[in-house]
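Subject — a protein and its fold
Fields — amino acid sequence, structure tokens
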Amino acid sequence: MCGAPKQGGGLAGIDLDTQTVIQGQVWHDGAPVAGAYVRLLDATDEFTAEVVTSPEGQFRFFAAPGAWKVRSLAPVGKGERSLSADVGLNETTVVLD
């Protein structure tokens, strides 16, 4: 079992002029997925971090600017999303198949 922290909460106190934040939600069949594992992979598909989605299906990573892949796995399915993150807030949605 993964020891990743539960996700959620706001961005109060986060300086989006200097931080790169990748956040979003995991969805399946039109509903958010709570308790899904979400991995952040770098441009070479190397594992960087893993979190568990909040009850609202939310996840958040603090990363460096650049190319990233967000991969999610849950009992109901799996999904993946590639993105190019800049300094600031970068939002995405991962839809499970």
Q: What stands out?
A: Residues 1-6 have pLDDT under 50 and may be disordered. The domain at 20-95 is CATH 2.60.40.1120 (Immunoglobulin-like).
